[in-house]
């Protein structure tokens, strides 16, 4: 059986080699590699597409002056700090502190410098810092009492 398989393998190999052309030659001529045409014939012009017409019209139209939107004056910007309005002056409460076991607050007005107030001191004539508590600052203005809560929920959510 081995001899039969060997003989069939030899005949198969011989038939494969005989199928290959032995006379095939490679043609290496420079004329057959690339031929450059002597003239190029133009293509008929095609009609412009609608999108091209719109685009060309947009590009070629004269530029118009851009109209500016009317400026809207913004109202006074709200401060991120809580504000306390006394006698039409908005004060920002910058902090509550202690010095020698006595609490004091720092206020900053829109047109004033820093103001340090301890309990019992006057902010302006008739405006007195009555009491400082952990959650509020109480100010007395004549007979009126203004309670400025420190941890009130803001409108920002």
Notes on the structure:
It is a single chain. The protein has helices at residues 2-19, 50-60, and strands at residues 83-86, 89-99, 102-109, 114-118, 122-124, 127-132, 136-141, 144-149. The chain is an alpha+beta fold and 157 residues long. The chain is elongated and about 125 Å long. Strand 6 and strand 7 form a beta hairpin. It has a domain at 83-149: SH3 type barrels, CATH 2.30.30. The strands form 2 sheets. The chain has a 4-stranded antiparallel sheet, with no helix packed on it. Strands 5-6-7-8 form a 4-stranded antiparallel sheet, with no helix packed on it. The two termini are 95 Å apart. It is built from 2 helices and 8 strands. The longest helix is centred in the N-terminal third of the chain and has 18 residues, at 2-19. 18% of the residues lie in helices and 31% in strands.
Oligomer: single chain
- Give helix and strand order, one letter per element, not per position: HHEEEEEEEE
Unreliable runs: none
* CA(first)-CA(last) distance: 95 Å
Helix fraction, binned, reads: 10-25%
Shape: elongated
The radius of gyration computed from the alpha-carbon positions, rounded to a whole number of angstroms, is: 48 Å
Summarize the SSE layout with pairings:
Elements (H helix, E strand, L loop, with lengths): L1 H18 L30 H11 L22 E4 L2 E11 L2 E8 L4 E5 L3 E3 L2 E6 L3 E6 L2 E6 L8
Summarize the entry for a quick read.
This protein is an alpha+beta fold and 157 residues long.
